[in-house]
Specification:
With 488 residues, the chain is mostly helical. It is built from 21 helices and no strands.
Length: 488
């Protein structure tokens, strides 16, 4: 096994090995994914993948992972593999999820003046026929800004089922571009290598496959959420400008998907940290002389204001974006994420409860338990990692913990949820053990979608867990750290 150390070297410490050949290899693998999808999609209607498709997709995804790994963060033109691998997926059918068809159905309704919050997705003409079976009879679950975007793109394409899903990738491409610009600036602010941050948080195969291939609107939400974190580091206008801009960006992100609210706690933690000269690049930012008095009540009041200002702005912007359609996503007819089995442990519990209970009862119980667990986990994260009046603690670990709590303890966990955390991970300066876990999770959630389109997650996850366990064991024994191991 040791002879494979060259393949699993600590990537940040190794120079790219034949990067142009690996870019081509990744492109060929992506082309095979897109090609097999077209061959194995008669009529576009929902069904499980043919067995042979996984036999092609899994090796192809492994090649993409290896190509990304071998190119590494020291390759100066990270945009080239990102662009080369994304290009074929622009014209692909929605990959590993039918969410894009639900977006198209909502866009069809908006373009015709029909309220998606009161009309079932399955009633949206031809696009409605392609909506996944779990959501066919449900109403829209997304906020108003997403509906506006879906409607505009549906009008642009005449609500054509295929071309609408292609057009829906345009906002995701803009999100990738925005995220790239934001990550570079954040890397400079916190003295991290820009190539490492882009390689780990943007050109990562999960980001490209799920955002471009999967067409998930999480892309725009995440890009705006991370942009809010960057804005929070601005201490202009005597320390308030960044908080206001962060609130605006976070409100827009929530207008795309409500989950963006989770970035709010990270915004507060990061904004508070840069007010201390001991953290990040604060001394180089105007107004960084604001340092709360250690142990004083004034520090806690300033921390409270640091939370209240962006919070109020976020709520106001979110409300403004919702003026046209309102908050109909709260309707009991809206799709409930726990309604479909996913990678979330609580979704498995819900599946078991549906045998003695009705679907509504099972969903209600699991949703309530999930809410309590998430609140408890966030409270623990704040106690262990969250900011104090005289100490910023570890803002990036806190931001990650909040997002991870929602993913693990929420009623649903999908592979694209990992894209919420990946752009932030490198900013958390931690040890080799967590870095090994990071690589194992990246590999696992890159491969899982190819299996979960033909079998339940309860079966797919153990199949992937076995080789991942071997990978973890080998990395631990060989003392491999996939990312630079360091403390703040």
């Amino acid at each position: 096994m040791d002879r494979w150390i060259g393949w699993l070297r600590p990537a940040p410490d190794g120079h790219p090995r034949a990067p142009w050949w690996w870019i081509v290899a990744g492109l060929v693998a992506i082309l095979s994914l897109v090609g097999t999808q077209f061959v194995d999609a008669p009529g576009l209607l929902e069904r499980g993948d043919s067995w042979w498709r996984a036999a092609v997709s899994l090796p192809a995804l492994v090649v993409v992972l290896l190509a990304w790994w071998q190119i590494g963060p020291r390759f100066r033109r990270q945009w080239i593999p990102a662009a080369a691998w994304s290009a074929p997926m622009l014209m692909a059918l929605p990959m590993y999820s039918r969410d894009a068809y639900a977006y198209a159905a909502q866009g069809w309704m908006v373009a015709r003046g029909i309220d998606p919050y009161t009309t079932a997705l399955g009633d949206a003409g031809q696009p409605g026929l392609l909506v996944g079976v779990h959501w066919f009879e449900t109403t829209a679950v997304y906020p108003a800004l997403s509906l506006e975007l879906f409607g505009a793109l549906a009008q642009l394409t005449g609500s054509h089922p295929y071309w609408t899903t292609v057009a829906l990738r345009l906002p995701n491409l803009l999100a990738l571009l925005l995220l790239g610009l934001v990550l570079r600036r954040l890397a400079r602010r916190f003295a991290l290598d820009e190539g490492l941050v882009i390689w780990a948080g943007l050109t990562n195969p999960i980001m490209l496959v799920q955002w471009v291939g999967g067409v998930h609107n999480d892309a725009l939400m995440v890009a705006l959420g991370v942009a809010a974190l960057l804005a929070a580091t601005d201490l202009g206008w005597r320390g308030w400008r960044g908080l206001i801009v962060a609130g605006v960006l976070l409100g827009l992100a929530m207008g795309v998907k409500q989950s963006a609210a989770l970035y709010g706690l990270g915004v507060v933690a990061v904004a508070w940290a840069v007010r201390f000269r001991s953290w990040g690049a604060a001394p180089a930012v105007a107004g960084s002389d604001a340092h709360p008095a250690r142990g004083s009540a004034a520090g806690w009041w300033r921390l409270a204001l640091t939370a209240v200002v962006p919070g109020v702005v976020t709520i106001a912007v979110f409300a403004l974006t919702s003026l046209r359609f309102g908050f109909g996503w709260r309707s009991p007819t809206a799709g409930n994420p726990v309604g479909a089995m996913s990678n979330a442990p609580l979704s498995w519990v819900a599946e078991g409860l549906r045998y003695p209970l009705t679907d509504d009862a099972a969903n209600s119980i699991v949703t309530a338990v999930s809410t309590l667990l998430i609140l408890a986990a966030v409270a623990v994260a704040w106690v262990k990692l969250g900011p104090r009046g005289d100490d910023p603690r570890d803002p990036w670990a806190f931001a990650m913990a909040v997002l991870a709590a929602f993913c693990v303890l929420g009623p649903a966990l999908q592979p694209w949820y990992l894209t919420w955390l990946l752009p932030l991970y490198v900013f958390w300066r931690t040890g080799a053990r967590w870095h090994r876990a990071w690589l194992v999770v990246v590999v696992g959630f890159t491969l899982l979608p190819a299996l979960q389109t033909m079998m339940p997650p309860l079966i797919a996850m153990p199949l992937v867990a076995v080789p991942l366990g071997l990978l973890w064991r080998w990395m631990a024994r060989a003392a491999v750290s996939p990312l630079p191991a360091a403390g703040r």
